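Repro:
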Amino acid sequence: MTKGLKKTFVITLVLSSLIFGFLTPDKTASNLSLTLLICLLYTAVLGFSNGLLNQFLNRKYSWAVSTTKRMFLGILATVILNTVLVFVCNYINFILIQGEDPAHFFNGEMNLRHWLILNIALLVTAVMHINGFIIALKKNTRSEVVEQKIIASAASAQFESLKNQLDPHFLFNSLNVLSALIDENRESAQRFTDSMSKVYRYVLEQKDKELVSTEEEIEFAKTYCELLKTRFEDSVNFEFQVDEQTLKAFVVPLSLQLLLENSIKHNFATEASPLKIRIYSEDGFLSIENNYQPRELSQERQGIGLSNIVQRYALLTSRNVFIETSEDLFKVKIPLLTKKFSSMKPTDLIEETAYKKASKRVEEIKNFYGNLISYCIFIPFMFLINWKTSPGYWWAFWPMLGWGIGVISHAIHVFAIGRSWEEKQIQKYMQKEHENTNRWK
C-alpha cells in the first residue's frame, strides 16, 4: 500500500506539473491547487482500480501458466474498467468541479477529451502490465532454471553411475577370461595379464570423459580384440572397416568394448562355427555386427552392456542407438557425434539454454509492449493534430485502424496462436524423439 501511495503521489506531481506548465494559461495558486486536485482524482481512482484489477487477475491467471488467457482478459477488463472510470472522473472533473454544461458531456470536443484521457489511462495501465509481466517472467525463469538444474544434476548423477558400472563390469569379465587361460595355457595367461593392464589403463583414462574420438576407441577395440583372440583363438574373427571421416567423429567411451563383450557373451563361438564380428562405418553410425548364434544365459549373467550404452547416449544426444536382429545377424548402430562437448557440464548447458530462451522471450515481449506504447502515444497525438488542423474530416481514424490491426497481429504472434503453435510443435517432436529413445531401453 505504501508503495502504491508513493507511485500515486509521483504521478500526480508529474501530471499536474505538465498540465499546469503547458496547458494552463493563468498561472495562479488557485489553478495550481485545482490542477493538483484533478490530477489526484484521476491517478487515485484509475491507479488503485487498475492495481486491484491486476491483483485479481494475477491470483486467477498466472502470467507463466496462462499467458494467453491472462493477456486477453487483462486487455478486455482494462479497456472496460478504464472506459467506465474515465467517464466517471471526467464527469466529476468537467461537470461537478469545473461547472460545464452536462448537455455538452458527449459533444464533439468533449468526446475528444474522453478519447485523449482514456488513451493516457490505457498507456499508464500498459506500463503497469509490462512491469507485472516482467516480474512474473523473471520469477518463472528463475524457478525454471532451478528446476532444470535439479533435473540436470540428476542426469549427471545417473551418467556418473552408468560410467562407474564399467569398472567392475570390465574387471569381472577380464578376470573370468584370465581364470580360464590359467587352466589352459599359463604362458598365454601371462601375455593376457600384460595386455590387460594396458587395456585397463585405457579404461581408467577414459572413464571420466563423456566422449572420445572414434580413432581412439577403434585402437582400443583392436587391442581388446587381441585379448579375445588369445582366449578364443580361431573361434572368433574380427574385421574392421572404418573410413577416415568416421575416425574424426566421437563416440561414447568403451562402447565398443561393451558391444564386443555382448557379442561374445550371447553367442556360441567354436572353431567349427566361428563367431564373426564386423565393425564398420554406415551413414553417420558405427555399426557392430555379428552372425547370430544365440545361446541360453542364466538370469544372473544378463549384462548391462546394451542398456548402459543406450542410456548414456540418451543423456548426451537426441540421436538414437539402433538394435537390429534377424535370423542370421545381430547388429547395433551407435551414432557418430560431430561435436565434443565434455568441457561443459549438463547443468551449464541447461542453464545456458534456459537463459537464451528467457532472453528471447523477454525481447519479444519488450518489442510488443514498445509497439503498444508507441501506439498509445502517437494515435492521441494524431487526433490532436487532426482536431487542430482539420476538425471537419477525421483522417486520424485511418492510421488508428491500420496500426491497431498491426498491434493486434503482433499480440497474437507473441502471446497466442504463433507462440502456442510453436511450443506445441516442439513438444510434439521432443515426445516423438523420447519415445524412439525409450524403445530400445
